[in-house]
Amino acid sequence: MGLLIVPYYIYVLLCEDGSYYTGYAKGIDLRVKQHRRGVGARYTKMHRPKRLVYAEEFDTIGEAMKREREIKQLSHEEKHRLVSSQPLNCEGLPQNKEKRRVR
Hints:
Blueprint (H helix, E strand, L loop, with lengths): L7 E8 L4 E6 L2 H10 L4 H5 L2 E10 L2 H12 L3 H9 L12 H4 L3
């Protein structure tokens, strides 16, 4: 029996004040629920999340953390262009996962 590879994700939340929050997690659904309950991160306690607007999938936590740092360094306008470039499906995941998957 082979090893089950659990994917890691980076995600971007649009907050009620129009700002963006970027994070990484093993499971997006649970993490977004934590943010909405105010237990996800200090930032999202002060800037309530409105909705998930962007996600990318990675095979390793290192890749996800590296991409998270890259996105956090973008300006607000650059983040807006990034999140506008990728529609999400009904589960909140990229419609074209392979386009965004990093190996």
